[in-house]
Amino acid sequence: MMELRNLKTFQTVAECLSLTKAAKQLGYTQPTITVQIKALEKEIGYPLLTHVGKQTILTPTGKLLKKHTDNIFKVMQEMERDLKNLDHFYGTLVIASPEFYCANYLPFILRSFVERHPQVKIKLESCNSIEALNLVSSDKADVGIIAGASELSEIESTVIDSEDIVLVASPELLKNHDTAYVLENYPFLVDKNVEGMIGSSLSEINYAPRSVIECSSEEAIKRSVLNQMGTCIMGTKPIEDELKSGDLIVLHRFSEKLETSMICFKNRKQETAINALFQLIKDMWGK
Predict the structure, then answer these.
(1) Residue 168 sits in a domain of what CATH number?
(2) Which residues pair with 114 in a beta bridge?
(3) Cβ atoms within 10 Å, residue 117
(4) 244 and 185 in one domain?
(5) How many domains in the chain?
(6) Does residue 141 register a pLDDT over 70?
(7) Pairing between β-strand 212-215 and β-strand 188-191 as defined by DSSP bridges
(8) How many CB atoms neighbour CB 279 within 10 A?
(9) The pLDDT of residue 110
(10) What is the pLDDT of residue 193?
(11) Alpha-carbon distances of 35 from 32, 39, 188, 264, rounded to whole Å
């Protein structure tokens, strides 16, 4: 197999078309240059250089080898640059997250991240938790913030927060009816962000809704419940203000907690930008 050292020497000679200049540029003696070129010629089986008077020129084989040698060292330079950039990430970091987290948590964290890593471009994808997990697992997003956790073996899932899970309704619905009547006769709105834990929560209160409306927007569900469309199960943080003001009331507080997790591929967590973002989210989330 050809030695890279000999190929580098040949590349320099081919550019200088002078053994003397090449030797000076590489810091070798001229006899060393000659030995290395001869070694290549012996391995290839064809001469690489010829002389016309005092001028050194490339043979057809020399021109062909020069073309491939240039490509080899170009790829090596790109590889070395990319490896160095592992410590100085640049490019675009795609983050997928539900709208509530995008609006209430990530702006402050991402502002701090960009101040520390101005060379990084951030792309924020607002979606539900299921979509965020799909984007990360299909490598269309680098990092995801989701309600709950991922059970995929290839995904690293780190819990960053937890909150109570509650069944809520508008107090207007209960002015003329008791809770049992409301649960029996009004639709149950399902937040697809947390549908994984809906079943166990409903089992806790032995409730099987007759009418179900699915929605992937927490805000849409909250507005629907405020407008007396029905009841829903949600984490307490998106409806914290409404619970304090009394615009929504808790019909049941469940024993299970709703976790918030950040996710990425396990084999990518140690990448500089992703690791830096993970640390910042853990330090700043909810503060």
Answers:
(1) 3.40.190.10
(2) none
(3) 19
(4) yes
(5) 3
(6) yes
(7) parallel
(8) 11
(9) 94
(10) 66
(11) 5, 6, 84, 52
Query: Which residue is it, tokens 């809704």?
Result: 209
**What digits encode the pLDDT tens for the residues 249-278?**
999 999 989 999 999 999 888 888 898 999
Give 19-44 pLDDT, tens digit per residue.
889 989 999 999 999 999 999 999 99
On whether the CB atoms of residues 284 and 109 are closer than 8 A, the answer is yes
**Which residue, 193, 196, 187, is CA-closest to 232?**
187
Pairing of strands 155-169, 249-265: antiparallel
How many other C-beta atoms are found inside a 10 Å radius of the C-beta of residue 205?
A: 12
Q: Do residues 97 and 156 share a domain?
A: yes
Of 67, 84, 101, the residue that ends a domain is 84
Report residue 87's pLDDT band, with 50, 70 and 90 as the boundaries: low
Domain final position from 68, 84, 100: 84
Query: How many other C-beta atoms lie within 10 A of the C-beta of residue 238?
Result: 22
pTM greater than 0.85 (yes/no): no
Same domain, 67 and 55: yes
Q: Give CA–CA dist 30/76, Å, rounded.
A: 26
> What does the alpha-carbon distance between residue 43 and residue 157 come to, in Å, rounded to a whole number?
53
Residue 86 reports pLDDT greater than 70:
no
Q: Which residue range is the domain that position 55 belongs to?
A: 4-84
Mean pLDDT, rounded, for 52-63: 90
- Two tokens, residue 270: 């140690």
Does residue 147 share a domain with residue 131? yes
Residues 6 or more apart whose Cβ sits within 8 Å of residue 91: 120, 121
DSSP class per residue in 142-175: SEEEEES----TTEEEEEEEEEEEEEEE-GGGGS
